[in-house]
Amino acid sequence: MTQILTFLGKGGIGRTTVAIATAKQQASQGKRVLLASQGSGPELSLLLGLPTPPEPTDIAANLKVVQFNTPYLLEKAWEEVKKLEAQYLKTPFFKEVYGQELAVLPGMDAAFALNAVREYDRSGEYDVIVYDGTGDRETLRMLGIAEIGGWYLRRFKQVLEGSDIVRALSPFWQPMSGAVLNVDWSKTEFSSDRIDEFLNEGKSALSDATHIAGYLVSGDDAASLAVAKYRWGEAQQIGLTIGGILVNRGNGGAIGTEFDPLPVTTIPSKSGDDWQPLIDALPNFGSQIASAPKPMEVDRSAQSVRLFLPGFSKQDVKLIQSGPEVTVEAGEQRHNIYLPPALQGKPVKGAKFQNQYLTISF
Questions:
Q1: Residue 38 belongs to what domain range?
Q2: Where would I find the ArsA HSP20-like domain in this sequence (predicted)?
Q3: What is the pLDDT of residue 339?
Q4: Which of 71, 127, 134, 286 is least surrounded by Cβ atoms within 10 Å, i.e. has the fewest?
C-alpha cells in the first residue's frame, strides 16, 4: 500500500523544502517515491534546480516529480467528455468550451489534484507519495472533499433525485463523470447511493493513518506555532492523522508540552545546495504515525464518541444532530460522524469538552 505524506503550517515556514527533503529521504531508503506539487509557481523548480513537468518525471534514483496543472489535467479528459456529450444530449453545449475554461470554476484545482493523487495511489507504481499543496487551508479542503461532499449529498438527495434536469442529464453524467474522475460506474447502478459510497471510500482512506498522514511544520515563534496548532485541530476534523511536528528555523525545546502527545523534531535550515543535514534530521515517519492520537474513537459499550480537537476551545465547537449522524463544526471544517448501527437513532444526551477532547454521549 502506498503511503501519502503531506505537510501543514504557516505560509513561508518551509513546507515545500521539507516536502522535497522528505521525498529525497524516502527515495534514499529504496522506496519508489513521487513528489507531487499543487503549486503553479516556480518555487519547486528553483529548489530542485530543474523544470517540474505536468507528468511524473525521473529526477533521481527512485524519485519522480510532478507539478499538477489543472487546465492540463482537465484537457486530458475533455475530448472524451465532448464525445460523450454529443452522444447523450440532443443540444451539445460543450463543443466550443475548452478544458482550460472550466479550470477557473471554484474547487476545480482541489478536485483534480485529489483525483490525480488518487490515480497515482491506485497505480501501484509508488511506495510513497509526498504531496506539497498550495497551502494549508487548500490542502485540508482538498482532503476533506469526500467529507463535505457526502454531507451535502445526503441532505439534498431527495431534491436531486426528483429534479427534472438531473433526470435529463443522468444518462450523460454517468459516463462523463467516469471519464473525468476515472471511475467505473458500469459495474453498479449509478445513483446518489453509489456516489455516497464513492465518497465514503475516500473518507475511509483518509482515516487510515498508515495510508495518509500529515505533519506540522513550524518555527518556534508564537505566530507559526498558533497556526500549526489550529491546522492540527482542523486536520483532526476531516479525519487526517497528524504524526508529529517539525520545528524549522528554531528550537524545538522551546515548545514545551503545547503539542503533546505529538513528537517534536528540530530540523536545520537548508544551506545552499546541501540537502543532507536536513534529510538526516527528519524523523522516522512510519514509527511516529503509529503512535499518533486518532481523530475519533467510538466506544460502543459506553455509547459515546470521542474526538480529539487540539487548537480549539469549547466556544469554537458547535454540535448538530441530523438523523443518523452528528455534525461537529470547528474552525473552517465540518466533521460528519455517521453513527454505527448501535448508536443510530439515539439522541445526543450530552457533550463534554475537556483536555482537547470532545466526548459525545448518547
A1: 3-70+105-143+208-290
A2: 304-362
A3: 76
A4: 286
Specify the pTM: 0.78
Q: List the CATH number of the domain containing 302.
A: 2.60.40.790
Residues whose CB falls within 8 Å of the CB of residue 204, separated by 6 or more in sequence, listed in order: none
Which CB contacts under 8 angstroms, 24+ apart, belong to 13-16?
A: 13/217, 13/218, 13/219, 13/224, 13/248, 13/249, 14/217, 14/248, 14/249, 14/269, 15/132, 15/136, 15/217, 16/43, 16/44, 16/47, 16/132
> 33 in a domain, yes or no?
yes
C-alpha neighbours within 13 Å on the C-beta side of residue 246: 31
Residues 318-335: tens digit of each pLDDT: 888 876 678 888 877 778
What are 182-198's pLDDT values in tens digits? Answer: 545 454 444 455 545 54
Domain count, the chain: 2
Beta strands 242-248 and 212-218, pairing class: parallel
Give the contacts of 59 (CB within 8 A, at least 6 positions apart): 48, 50, 65
Distance CA 341, CA 238 (A): 21
Any domain includes 129: yes
Query: Considering the domain boundaries, does residue 19 fall inside one?
Result: yes
